[in-house]
Amino acid sequence: MMRPSIFASFLRAVRAGGLRDADTCVRLCAETGFEYLDYSPDFSSEDWLAETRLAADAAERYGIRITQCHAPYNFYKKEPVERFRLLLDRAAEGARILGVKDLVFHFDEYHPAPGEAFDAEKGLARAREVLEDAINKTVSFGINAALENPFEDHHRVGPEERSHLCAEIEELESAIQMFGDSRVTCCWDFGHAHLQFGALQADMIRRMGRRITCTHAHDNYYGKDLHLMPFYGQLDWETLIPALQSTGYSGTLAFEAGYGRFPDEILGEFLSLSRHAMELLCGYADSPN
Q1: Could you report the per-residue pLDDT of 204-224, keeping only the tens digit for each?
Q2: Quick one: pLDDT at residue 288?
Q3: Mean pLDDT across the chain
Q4: Nearest to 232 by CA among 214, 252, 259
Q5: Is the dihedral of CA 255, 260, 266, 268 positive or negative?
């Protein structure tokens, strides 16, 4: 049985300015009826530990289960490697404090040197070098290190050049297998997979199979990673969710809202509609695929 979830940390930013604290974010979701959450603390802040503990305490107080969170990723932030490794270590510690089942990692931390061609084997080795300590620490806590499927957007390269390691399913499989540990798994991002695989996404879900231990559910259209609420875009949820069900998956469907800051006056309506949308998705799990 799949269960609806949402990224509670999406609520941190207040449209009028400032930030909501972790307790408020968790409470708002609980009041809307969510029982499962993703909460990803700001591991780049020196207050990350206090935020993490506040989120964990709030989850216990409001009867919520935080099932997953997201490790920082360097591709967009361009953090120096040693600083990045520190943030990843914080994420592993934070995942332990939150009691999550899955900590999600991007495994595309690789760029060829200027003038060099994209080399997947070299990229996998480099990404492992950067991420391995944090992944090993995560699994030592009994938490899945779930590698997320990205998509190829040719960021900062030519239209025929590669920029995202593991956008190809074979590379993602190789990244998971190189650790030889059943707790190194896959976080299936439906929105990314739509951009990468199009109508073949259901086949790719079945191919990844039981290695999928958590999800990011969001919608898009026109080839853009928009992180829309399901049903606002082009994804064929009525086909995709039964495909996931066929793998034996029984975890959460987590709405990864990514953009926008809602005024307080409509935030409750947004959360209620989000919950209803995710409940509908979970209901598709019982449909034939």
Answers
A1: 999 999 999 999 999 999 999
A2: 62
A3: 95
A4: 259
A5: positive
Of residues 165, 219, 211, the one with CA closest to residue 192: 219
Contact 6, 65 (CB under 8 A): no
Containing 147, the helix (H) or strand (E) segment is strand 144-148
d(CA 21, CA 39): 12
The SS3 assignment for 154 reads coil
Task: Output the pLDDT for position 157.
Answer: 83
Give the angle subtended at the CA of 98 by the CAs of 92 and 104, to the nearest 5°.
45
What pLDDT sits at residue 289? 55
Give the three-state DSSP class for 253. Answer: strand
**Measured between alpha carbons, how far is 5 from 192 in angstroms, rounded to an integer?**
18
DSSP assignment string, 169-198: HHHHHHHHHTT--TTEEEEEEHHHHHHHHG
Q: What is the pLDDT of residue 32?
A: 98
CA distance between the termini of the chain = 16
Residue whose tokens read 């650790």: 179
DSSP string, 55-66: HHHHHHHHT-EE
Positions in the chain short of pLDDT 50: none
Beta-bridge mates of residue 187: 148, 214
C-alpha to C-alpha distance for 208 and 177, rounded to whole angstroms: 12
Cα dihedral value 179, 6, 262, 105, nearest 10:
0
Q: How far apart are CA 30 and CA 237, in angstroms?
A: 25
Rounded to whole angstroms, how far apart are CA atoms 131 and 154?
A: 22
Is domain 3-286 annotated with CATH 1.10.8.60?
no
Nearest to 281 by CA among 231, 246, 233, 212: 231
From the CB of residue 233, how many other CB atoms can be counted at a distance below 10 Å? 18
